[in-house]
# Entry
Amino acid sequence: MKICIPIVGGKAGFVNLMADDFYKANFYCIYDTGMENNEIFTKEELVTRFGFDFKQGDEKDAVKAIISPNIRPMAFKILVDNDIKVFRPLGNMVDENIRLFIKHELDEHDVYSVERSSGCGSGSCSSCSSTSCSA
# Structure
């Protein structure tokens, strides 16, 4: 199974730091739990390889989980609709959150945690690119 994690940068020193927001990140770490290795992608490379909904590729190449502190409501809906689980990290270190994921110690985001982290319901829907904010 593959896990996608937004990261601060693609160079040493930044690949182990999680970005604060899945949508706003410019780099992503894809960790393969079966192979126990990772690849670093720019946002453009990630979309080209996996598609906007992570459906591109075969089942063994599919991303099945996201770990991110913040995720936009519309992105959350698309991911959940495509059977991709979205987890809340503990801390901002990529390797530690992968370890916690493997040990089943991370909680999943739900609609309430997504709305709180994105500011949805605050009268401004710019964070989810929707005028109604209904997921």
In short: Confidence is low (pLDDT under 50) at residues 120-135. The helical segments are 43-50, 73-81, 94-102, 111-118. The CA atoms of residues 27 and 85 lie 20 Å apart. The first strand starts at residue 2 and ends at 7.
